[in-house]
Amino acid sequence: MGYRNKDHVVLEDEYKKLSDKYFISTDDGSAGYKGLVTDLLEKELQEKSIDIVYACGPTPMIRKVMELTNKYDTKCQVSMEQRMGCGIGACLVCACKTKAENEDGWEYSHVCKDGPVFWSNEIILD
């Protein structure tokens, strides 16, 4: 989990109950690792066996998490944070590219009805 500082850390005890491995990074080092959460993730992926990574956050961070989990052959699920206009897939506001077995190799999926959580190897971030 990445936070600005220790004052922004939430639900720490609850997260610890849900996972054998729970890591915190803060921008200022006031709690856990000092630095970007993606730097901490790479360090942990290099040193330890991690079964699966769950990620949500800004697209540049998601892109880096996907790159790292692919590099270290680790399963990953990402929660996409597109705006959702209608909530039923009709308006296309929340469309995101996903891999598909068609001529183009991709199609649009709707975050509102097909997600918002996707396997990282299904998502295409341009």
How is this structure best described in words?
It is a single chain. The protein has 126 residues and is of the alpha/beta class. The chain has 2 domains: 1-35, no CATH class; 51-126, no CATH class. The protein contains 4 helices and 8 strands. The strands form 3 sheets. It has a 3-stranded parallel β-sheet, with no helix packed on it. It has a 3-stranded mixed β-sheet with strand order 4-5-8, with helices on one face. Strands 6-7 form a two-stranded antiparallel ribbon. Helix 2 (37-47) packs parallel to helix 3. The model has no long low-confidence stretch (mean pLDDT 94). It comes from Pseudobacteroides cellulosolvens ATCC 35603 = DSM 2933. One of its GO terms (molecular function) is oxidoreductase activity. Residues 2-65 form the Oxidoreductase FAD/NAD(P)-binding domain. Residues 81-123 form the Dihydroorotate dehydrogenase electron transfer subunit iron-sulphur cluster binding domain.
Question: In percent, how much strand structure appears in the residues?
Answer: 15-25%
**How are the strands of the largest sheet arranged?**
1-2-3
Q: Main sheet?
A: 3 strands, parallel
Taking the alpha carbons of the first and last residues, their distance comes to 25 Å
Number of strands: 8
How many domains, in number, for the residues?
2
List the helices and strands and how they pair.
Layout: E1 2-3, H1 12-18, E2 25-26, E3 33-34, H2 37-47, E4 52-56, H3 59-71, E5 75-79, E6 95-99, E7 106-110, H4 111-114, E8 117-119
Parallel strand pairs: 1-2, 2-3, 4-5
Antiparallel strand pairs: 5-8, 6-7
Helix pairs in contact: 2-3
Protein name: Dihydroorotate dehydrogenase, electron transfer subunit, iron-sulfur cluster binding domain-containing protein
InterPro entries: Dihydroorotate_DH_ele_sf (IPR037117), Dihydroorotate_DH_Fe-S-bd (IPR019480), FNR_nucleotide-bd (IPR039261), OxRdtase_FAD/NAD-bd (IPR001433), PyrK_electron_transfer (IPR050353)
Organism: Pseudobacteroides cellulosolvens ATCC 35603 = DSM 2933
